[in-house]
Input
Amino acid sequence: MKNYDVIIVGAGVSGLTLAHYCAKAGQQVLVLEKTNRAGGCFHSHRFEGAADGFWIEMGAHACYNSYGDLIGVLEDNNLMGTITPRAKVPMKFYVGGKIESLMSQISLIEMAFSVPKMFSAKKEGTSVEDYYSTIIGKNNYKNAFGPMFDAVISQTAAGFPADSIFKKRPRNKSVLGNFTFSKGLSTVTDALAGRGGVALLTGQEVTEFSYDGSSFKVVANGETYESKYASLAVPPPAAAKLLQASFPDIASEVSKVRVGCVESVGFAIKKDKIAVSPFAFIIAINEAFYSIVSRDTVPHDDYRGFAFHFKPGQLNRQQKIEKITSVLGIKQEDMEQVVAKDDNCVPSLVLGHEKVLAAIDAKLAGKPLMMAGNFYSGVAIEDCVSRSKTECERVAAKK
Output
């Protein structure tokens, strides 16, 4: 049996930032990841061969200077020097089989009559659809902003709590407002996975997660590990299953959180093979995909790259390829190194979610168990990092 101070199940941005905070507090940390790569939604796919050195984002795609806790992590790991600005290219819509400008779907007249209502409208206790329909107009929400919010979280956002998507945070004006990294967002999780005090094992199927009152026992791929503290930083269904043996009351609350997944397809293409002008995102309206995220925000001399985020279960692989070629006006044979990712999952929050969180935190009080992930503080990258920080401070860093 191998012993550590902390065992963390899940090597996404939540698990790895928690590992960072615990290691910074002097703990020896083991991180176990089910898949063969660390990073979770930080997934910068790096191409080989003729496109060697080129990358695209298959998950999250940008960071902001309002992400104070994330910036602190970057500073701790000497990553500030790798920050790269994102070029200012437009966001567009795909509607009726055509790529259209952002303003083409927005009624300025309706906006003018609706915006004053924002001074009296409240986000707390209202859904995304109810709140934003009030302050921008119902038709503007239906024709533009609804699909935009759907694209942000790659699922239907209408019933989401309005205060769970966009949060006002103080900005660090010494940092670029909107940035990435010279080798993509995976730069961050790569550094966290390799930092001192953290041991990472990928391809690990955890079959037991138990606590006997004094220590945790975690079994993965037939190997047993023991620790004083432990954390689950995995999607709610997986967390609820692992918690059932020793923490059934917490498992019951976590199981209430639903999850929505997206099927992503990415590829590189030589610049002379595509005529569509550069863009940051294309938001789809009434289509089988939510959005297209472009690498045009970090221009390359020879290549452009795109990630299509498809709605789950609607198209097979070939149908997705056909949709991609139709939307961008390209040939299938010009799509280089096509890559698919079907494990991008985001919590599907509903009104009243704060009560679930309060119940989880109440049951965690006084326990050496830390719970991290993208459904505690919110779905943004900063929400994940902040939750990891507070959980470490609550448990491991205080001991």
